[in-house]
Amino acid sequence: MAGVLRKLGVFMGSRFMPPTDGHSPATWEDEVFIHMNRFIAAGYASNRLRDTFYEDFVVQRDHEHQFVWGVKEPRLSQTFEYLLPYLSDPHVIFMQRPVEDILDSFVRAGYGNRYAAEEWYRMHSVGVCRQLSVYDGPILRIQFDDLISNPKETIQHVVGFIFSGVDRPSDEKIESASETIDAKFVKVDRWPVKVMISTATKGYLHALTASWRLREVQCLMNDPAVGVATNTVVTKRPLMHARNQQVIHFLDSDCTHLFILDSDCVPKDDTIRRLLSYNKPIISAPHESVVNQERGLMVVDPAPSGHGYVQHLPLEGMQGPNVRVGCGGLLIHREVLEVLGPPWFRMTYDERGLLICSEDFDFCERALSSGYEIWAQCDLWQRHI
């Protein structure tokens, strides 16, 4: 909506937040205002400093832009009441969106898991309700779905709300604003492919792994044909318990593919899109491993003796269609998990209680027995930190 307002001629600021791993360059958030407002929202500013900043900000905007100006900053859900006394005839646009869409957007952007998204939403929704309770001026409530499905009509409502009594924007500006609602927004819930990047951890996620995940999320968000969500399972229980939790969260989502990211592995950039390009039900970007004191990749074959596994060779290019691989770096299509059913990952033991097969290789054996191929793209090998 802030981008639409700017197209209509509303001054939203001159220095916008620069693009970062988790920040789109088209959010129209004024850099000076957002930094200071976050400082105030965090409680670091005295009342005097807070009031001085808001007063000076409004005076400057009124002086430089005599007609209509606006500001967008999520933390106004906590600070709007302090800004309000300095505004002359303020108009509030309140964008309403289904809760599930908001939470999915939060997770998809890589800001955290579902629990973090729900906590963030709870805090901001309570703040919005409290701030609006102290405001009795004009307010326009817009449904996000209406803006997407019928942008021209919705924007006409915005124009009538904001520009009554002042010069209305030209038809060209209104048309340009409507075109701002383009395919990158319409694609919501329409991706042919949507990947969940899922990480299991006992409470520690390596900084290099976390950095890769942010970069990969941004890479996928820039592809109009691919959706992305993230999920983190934190548990001190055995690994197979964590793996099954990852699958449960995945199947509860609308994602088509699960990518398992270990908390101590660092894939190559753009790994997921490259794996998707092969259109395989199960495909791995294998991580480093140690087999018989030799450093290799987690790609193995059954041992000739019939007991255990040996390193698969060669370790380059695409290998398949019946290799066994580790879970880290594994991309699995939803159909595979629905067909295999729970428990998806389990340890198998002999009658003496000795381990026969770990949870990753057991998964591979059952998938192969169910008729699915398993491939590994060794050129996309991951660092195992």
What would you say this structure looks like, in words?
Helix 5 packs across helix 6. The strands form six sheets. This protein has a seven-stranded mixed β-sheet. A three-stranded antiparallel β-sheet has the order 11-10-13. Strands 1-2 form a two-stranded parallel ribbon. A hairpin with a 5-residue loop joins strand 15 and strand 16 (355-357). It has helices at 2-7, 31-41, 47-64, 76-83, 99-108, 114-133, 144-149, 151-162, 171-180, 183-186, 207-221, 239-251, 271-276, 334-340, 359-369, and strands at 92-96, 139-143, 193-201, 226-234, 257-262, 265-266, 282-284, 288-291, 294-297, 299-302, 309-311, 318-319, 324-325, 330-333, 348-349, 355-357, 375-377, 383-384. Helix content is 41%, strand content 19%. By secondary structure, it is an alpha/beta fold. The longest helix has 20 residues, at 114-133. The chain is elongated and about 85 Å long. It folds into two domains: 2-186, no CATH class; 193-384, Spore Coat Polysaccharide Biosynthesis Protein SpsA, Chain A. Mean pLDDT is 83; it is low at 19-26 and 186-190.
Give the SSE layout.
Blueprint: H1 2-7, H2 31-41, H3 47-64, H4 76-83, E1 92-96, H5 99-108, H6 114-133, E2 139-143, H7 144-149, H8 151-162, H9 171-180, H10 183-186, E3 193-201, H11 207-221, E4 226-234, H12 239-251, E5 257-262, E6 265-266, H13 271-276, E7 282-284, E8 288-291, E9 294-297, E10 299-302, E11 309-311, E12 318-319, E13 324-325, E14 330-333, H14 334-340, E15 348-349, E16 355-357, H15 359-369, E17 375-377, E18 383-384
Parallel strand pairs: 1-2, 3-4, 3-5, 7-17
Antiparallel strand pairs: 5-14, 6-18, 7-14, 8-9, 10-11, 10-13, 12-17, 15-16
Helix pairs in contact: 4-6, 5-6, 8-9
